[in-house]
Design a protein that fits this description.
Blueprint (H helix, E strand, L loop, with lengths): L1 E10 L4 E10 L2 E7 L6 E5 L1 E7 L13 H5 L5 H8 L2 H17 L2 E8 L2 H12 L6 E6 L14 E4 L7 H13 L3 E6 L7 H5 L5 E4 L5 H9 L4 E3 L1 H6 L7 H6 L4 E3 L2 E2 L7 H11 L4 H7 L2 H7 L16 E5 L11 H7 L6 E4 L1
Parallel strand pairs: 1-4, 5-6, 5-13, 6-7, 7-8, 8-9, 9-10, 10-11, 11-12
Antiparallel strand pairs: 1-2, 2-3, 4-14, 14-15
Helix pairs in contact: 3-4, 11-13
């Protein structure tokens, strides 16, 4: 069935605002036509949240404590709580967060899922209730059991400082033998785990908050993408990652909201924080939160921007809300001040 939308379109891989029409058929964009129209809506590509831990949905108000006490395996607070949480309760919590992501404009996400096969299975079941969102799941072993890879797209580990070198190498070997991807946290608490992470030739790194200029050059030379989580790093007092230096080095940088216990999975909040604390470039910030995430996850042929042939994964926002009233620059307003309650429709 064909449908046509009209409004100010945040168009193409350069996110240029144009007035016109989008024609959709069978869930795909079949035409984008620029035209002089009068409209009070903004049509934008949905977000790609490149790093989450949505199992943490079972604890949304942890006490303030050092990062290692909060998240380090195997006995950080989150891991103790996850072990104690019944399957049914975890399933309900994860479903709620997936629903929240959809309502706040996210069409795809990448989750680092704890708990081995059991943990990944909970997320897979929760996703069955929400077929409208794409997911990439990076699991991790429980008690040396690598069976989680049968239902995950890859392995996502915490810092090399948390695990024995031989164990990490064995996990990496098993992951590659199954033809799956490998990613790892690095440089979040300090820089001591960055070189170890780089030696594993991961498909991407997460955080690099403490990366030096030398580290950034090595990452760039190795052509390794990076996911940054600015609100999370600020919340845990890790600092704000050197994102502009990464961009200047031609590293593909994407954005994630990280642990749900620290932050909501709301990418509008991530954009606003990022554009007001680090990257003073509306177009670049929006790209980090959409197209770059899609590139990093290998889904940019179908998501991340509005182009003929891609899937219609769109959010439509009103410019008539009290918040958006008076918008003169649609992209700037979208990045700096738009909220989920400005969304009037998601496709």
């Amino acid at each position: 069935m064909e449908q046509t939308l009209k409004g100010t379109i945040i168009y193409g891989d350069e996110f240029e605002p144009i007035d016109g029409y989008i024609t959709i058929e069978d869930g795909k964009i079949i035409n984008v036509e620029e035209s002089a129209i009068v409209s009070d809506v903004i049509i934008a590509p949905c977000f790609v949240n490149a790093h989450t831990h949505i199992g943490d949905s079972v604890i949304k108000d942890p006490p303030f404590m050092p990062l290692s006490d909060l998240v380090a395996p195997p006995d950080g607070l989150k891991h103790r709580i996850l072990r104690q949480t019944p399957y049914s309760e975890l399933l309900i919590s994860i479903r709620a967060t997936i629903g929240d992501m959809i309502k706040t404009g996210t069409c795809a996400f990448c989750d680092f899922r704890e708990g081995g096969l059991h943990g990944a299975s909970v997320l897979k079941e929760a996703l069955g209730t929400h077929p409208g969102i794409a997911s990439v799941i990076f699991g991790r072993p429980e008690d040396y059991d690598m069976n989680f890879l049968d239902i995950c797209q890859g392995t996502g580990l915490s810092s090399t400082n948390d695990l024995k070198t031989e164990y990490v190498q064995d996990i990496l070997k098993n992951t590659r033998e199954k033809g799956k991807k490998f990613a790892i946290h690095a440089g979040e608490k300090d820089s001591t785990d960055i070189s170890g992470a780089l030696s594993l030739s991961p498909d991407f790194l997460v955080h690099l908050t403490k990366a030096s200029d030398k580290d950034i050059k090595t990452v760039a030379d190795s052509n390794i993408p990076v996911v940054v989580c600015p609100r999370s790093n600020y919340m845990t007092r890790s600092g704000i990652p050197p994102i502009q230096k990464m961009i200047d080095a031609d590293i593909t940088v994407a954005v994630g909201t990280d642990n749900v216990m620290l932050n909501s999975a709301n990418m509008f909040s991530e954009m606003e924080f990022l554009v007001k604390t680090n990257i003073f470039d509306d177009r670049q910030v929006f790209k980090l939160c959409t197209l770059n995430g899609a590139k990093l996850l290998g889904i940019d042929k179908e998501s991340g921007s509005i182009i003929k042939g891609k899937k219609a994964r769109l959010m439509i926002l009103t410019q008539k809300s009290d918040n958006m009233h008076g918008t003169k620059n649609p992209l700037a307003s979208l990045v700096r001040r738009a909220r989920p309650d400005d969304i009037i429709r998601i496709i």
